[in-house]
Amino acid sequence: MVRIRIVCVSHTHGYGPQDGAFKLPKSDVLIHAGDLSNQGTLSELRKAKEWIESADFEVKIVIAGNHDITLDSNFYGLHWQSFHNQKPESSNECKDLFSKSSIIYLDHESAVIRLSRPDGPRSKFKIFESPSHCDQNKRGSLGCEYLRQALWRVRPRLTVCGHVHEGRGFERVRWNTAPQSEAFQELSSVRGELPPPGSKKQNLIDLTGRIQHRLQNDGSLIPLLPMSTAYHAPLPAESNASTPGRNETCIVNASIMATNWPHRGGKRFNNPLVVDLDLPADE
């Protein structure tokens, strides 16, 4: 196994380390899980691209959020007047910022990423703008049930998201993978503890067993189960959902913006979340 450190951020909304909003700890990988901007303008996205590109990480992975509207060409072409009623932005120019960059920009796609170390690592984790857990605000749960079902099918070690600013933090979800159990069931979901707002302590999520309990997920291969529109369905006999190894997923909401519009009392920011994770060495 190879231990790596991942710094997780999302929903920076036009702010970066250069603005004093947050500091980036050292690590191997940086993940930005959406909403780099407020309005998806070329100038906002260029600013975000520049600070991410210059950050000292071997790998930098980015996805778009719902505020980064220009990065969805088809949707923006139909609805740009709802966002930029003075003049349209160039969606192609906005997308070129990330396609012609050292940043790994994922647009509804996956990627195989290898660090330069000769021993790996290799694994699977997911990045979503919207959450399935860590999704609570004062109006209740805002997460996506179908996304939660998809996570049950794949059961990755780590999922990084944002969107619900108040949901920032992490949960460790244990899946019910027993034979003949109902599909999409969870055994437990435990909210993790982090330093209080304003603390100078590192916001570390240890999944290696060094400080916190070791993640119960070895990344072993499992057959992907068919999606179902039903929230509860019996597992097919051939599903092998009880395959040992993928019993737990850590879901991280890495929202940097701690407040919501209209930001009464001023904007406040969270610190990045740092994940330590053991992954299999690449063969």
From TrEMBL:
<feature type="domain" description="Calcineurin-like phosphoesterase">
    <location>
        <begin position="25"/>
        <end position="166"/>
    </location>
</feature>
<dbReference type="InterPro" id="IPR029052">
    <property type="entry name" value="Metallo-depent_PP-like"/>
</dbReference>
<dbReference type="GO" id="GO:0016787">
    <property type="term" value="F:hydrolase activity"/>
</dbReference>
<protein>
    <recommendedName>
        <fullName>Calcineurin-like phosphoesterase domain-containing protein</fullName>
    </recommendedName>
</protein>
<dbReference type="InterPro" id="IPR004843">
    <property type="entry name" value="Calcineurin-like_PHP"/>
</dbReference>
<dbReference type="InterPro" id="IPR051693">
    <property type="entry name" value="UPF0046_metallophosphoest"/>
</dbReference>
<dbReference type="Pfam" id="PF00149">
    <property type="entry name" value="Metallophos"/>
</dbReference>
